[in-house]
Amino acid sequence: MIITFATQKGGAGKTTLAIAFANYLALAGNPVRVHDFDFQKSIHTKWVEDQMLEKPILYEVEIPAHKDMPFADFDTMVRFRNDACIHIFDLAGTLDMRYTDILQYSDFIVIPFEYSDVSVKSTIVFINFLGLLESEAHKIFVMSRHEQGYNYPNKEFMDKEIGRFGRILNNGFLKRNALHKIDTRGIDSNLRKMVKPVFEEMLIHIEEKTGEKLHSLNTNKKD
Prior knowledge:
There is one protein chain. The chain contains 7 helices and 7 strands, in the order βαβαβαβαβαβαβα. Helix content is 37%, strand content 15%. The chain has 223 residues and is α/β, with parallel strands linked by helices. The chain has helices spanning 14-27, 42-49, 74-82, 100-105, 117-132, 155-162, 189-210; strands spanning 2-5, 32-37, 60-62, 86-91, 108-113, 138-143, 167-168.
């Protein structure tokens, strides 16, 4: 299975969300491999730095072998879709034709967004880009940096627009969530309570679309 985290605009929390989801899946016992295709290589850098932590490695993180052509053959994507591992891709926050194959053949594309005018425009642009690529991936929209209790004036419009193209999760991440403190080796008890509602909802949606049930993380389970 291929689950790709992507947006048209950087700074939406995409990379942090990808790390948290990879940790969550791996801690629950799912086989995971992360592919860091962001230009900044933030996940790979953090993963290497986390070698100093006295915690077991949860998964391997790979970077593209070739800068201009991440995958040289279609067979690679087919193998990733059909093997037992969950392949998580983190792409750069930009529209880049080098990612065409990944976006076309992903099983799911996770798109973090905010209820702001800038995010509305960039999210719709990205959806249109996926349409041009004829991507058949299921789209999952995750609220990022959400202000609980605030009445966003463009929420109704944005939900209606992007809801036509995929699933908007009921749960999201608040502005004060301390996800930026996460490493690639685990999720502490406070973060676990924070991410569980979001990721459990994602797993239910994945099972509904594929019939494949992924292992869920017990909140009482220790890292």
